[in-house]
């Protein structure tokens, strides 16, 4: 907790953890080794491929979020890297989004820590100085969709079983305003109104038409397309590209930063309700029974 | 006047008139009986159909607006209803919009009352807890278009004579900023700039392409399509859908609420000008002569 | 300089220079004669055609900007004119945008004067009471694109060599936020994010699809189409059209007006850097050698 809070403060004050700082990490060191987030040797100079490896569905557990952010920070601080492709190591799923077990049967302090980690992950991805290209090789609902929407470019596998969208209302949840802001920035106000209320998950052709992704390609070309798109982005000098990106995205990020504590409190209040806890328990029980 | 102001205050403070309160309504009771707004027995459980019946063109008179808002409030407070289809009982026209007779030859107090009623109607529709689907079975210019744009979903009859748009400039009027905000939220900034300045009325195919409506269907299927769309919306739990809707629409509504009194004063000043009064008189004279 | 500052102040306080004031202009009079901005005799009543004539590429020098603004002010104050078509007298190019020579090897006072002139030009075009239609008969990168985007309607010649976009990052520059705001208002947030970071220049078909222009027509019909579009716009009474335009565009203009001095300071700081000055020098040297 203390470490996570410390990280948040460091990020806020503009100081970033270097590779060494992350490795130092005291008794938390083992926790931050990249078990769930694998960085592949880059085939394109200056580009790393981050593979989400948190089976079975890359759900955004607290540990996954922490590893993912540390991993991005390392790459940002390593001047040999200018761009990152985000993709999944779990067949058929990009990321299932927030882990409901982090929101169920825990205490308020845990909910606060978890929600802050979700916020910090989004701020890190949305404002990254690196070029981020999502190679979406599986279904990406809810928080998985958010990660993709926060990249600079999205390539989706042309598989009708892969659906993408912010489907929180289907789970009895309300998306936080910054999920909404990110979607509105991508597909516009009207399409977002409908998609968010109905919790719509779009197949590739519809996702492309809505502008939720930039390209749909055959499944075996997702990563190669992402790498070739990356080349186009890396043709631009980093400094002016970063300043331009920041100028466009800053207002949206500031909206969260300004209301960050209230957003955490709001999450705790909502998730602590008996009715929400009960429905999450039922949902998780059903999931467990399906597996057996 | 006093009653309308009282209602506005009640709405502002979060208290809503129940069925009984509306029925009670003292010596104003008869006025609020649904003469101009007919609620049809619902064929789909939980869904009411509101038919505008203010012949010949469903213009938004003060009485119509008052009945419409009371009717929506009754349905919102009756827990058996979760969704409402809005449609017209007048052949060929959804609603002609604001009633120019309410703006012509009256005193400032009347203009104030009328404009507040228009504002309150929009706030009620735009932020309704009910799912609102517009079954647009006729032309819908100006205020008629605004009502449709403020619903959650729009189904338009495929009849090239039915046109839709905010054509105020053609009548020598300027739309208030919240009409503009509603249009921008629906079709975007650039399309709104052009449509509003030119007072464009779009035939169905163009309205669909612009995103001003969600679906265009044969005229005899408008209501059945609206009801079937409603089923999709009612599949979402009311509570999370309402919170999500409010999150998306709140900023736009707050924009009006914050400037509500200034907007009324602005309307009075504009409409009281000799030049405007004169052109409205000419317009209304012409309309009268056409009828004879 | 003093004159330019005085003009800026007059504009801010709502007073506008009449034809006479511009003609008076003391010892600066000759400077403001229309050498670089030619007003053609109008073929359509009430409509002037402004031709940019600053060869070879209509770059936005300080003198050009000053003439252009004075010319627009004259037309605004001459009640016989209601609309203006903006087009180019230089073959193959609408305008190459900001003149890099104004940003290179000069002192901070010059940079301040130049940047204020760019700002004032944009405010004048973006909020003009006249109907402005861009007849884009050539390539329009950077500031040239900005002028077109700030008109009320855009007609582009169907020539694949004519490209349009805000390509500042390709020149190692960052667009100011109000260039970004203008683009977002026209093509939306997501398309702007990509276009601005990559400095994309779009051929006519793509510019049309993105909504960056309203119409693409054969090259010899650009001006006639612009004039015929103008007729549609002039069918609307000036007063309500102007109020409507102002209502839609005011927030975007106010965004700059509120931060105008900071934006100037920001420009001076950025452009004064050694690295930027050096890369501009190299760029201008290369340009000079190409000519010989």
Profile the largest sheet of chain A: 6 strands, mixed
Overall form of chain A:
globular
Oligomer: homotrimer
Taking all Cα atoms into account, the compactness measure Rg of chain A is 18 Å
Pattern of helices and strands of chain A: HHEEEHEEEHEEHEEHHHEHHHH
Note poorly predicted spans of chain A.
1-33
Through-space gap between termini of chain A = 34 Å
How confident overall, as mean pLDDT of chain A? Answer: 89
- Which strand order spans the largest sheet of chain A, edge to edge or round the barrel? 1-2-4-7-9-11
Please state roughly what percent of the residues of chain A sit in beta strands, choosing from under 5%, 5-15%, 15-25%, 25-35%, 35-45% or over 45%. Answer: 5-15%
The residue fraction in helices of chain A comes out at 40-55%
- The class by helix and strand makeup of chain A works out as alpha/beta
Q: Largest chain interface and its two residue counts? A: B-C, 21 and 21 residues
Write down how many β-strands of chain A occur, each being a DSSP E stretch of 2 or more residues.
11
The DSSP helix count of chain A reads 12
Subcellular location (chains A, B, C): Mitochondrion matrix
Catalytic activity (chains A, B, C): (3Z)-decenoyl-CoA = (2E)-decenoyl-CoA; (3Z)-dodecenoyl-CoA = (2E)-dodecenoyl-CoA; (3Z)-hexenoyl-CoA = (2E)-hexenoyl-CoA; (3Z)-octenoyl-CoA = (2E)-octenoyl-CoA
Subunit structure (chains A, B, C): Homotrimer.
Pathway (chains A, B, C): Lipid metabolism; fatty acid beta-oxidation
Description of the structure:
The structure is a homotrimer of 292-residue chains. Chain A has 292 residues and is α/β, with parallel strands linked by helices. Chain A has twelve helices and eleven strands. In chain A, the strands form three sheets. Chain A has a six-stranded mixed sheet, sandwiched between helices. The first copy, chain A, has a three-stranded parallel sheet with strand order 5-8-10, with helices on one face. A two-stranded parallel sheet of chain A has the order 3-6. In chain A, helix 4 crosses helix 11. Chains in contact: A-B, A-C, B-C. Chain A binds chain B through residues 168-170, 172-175, 177, 180, 184, 188-190, 192-194, 196-199, and chain B through 152-153, 184-188, 211, 214, 232-233, 236-237, 240-241, 243-245, 247-249.
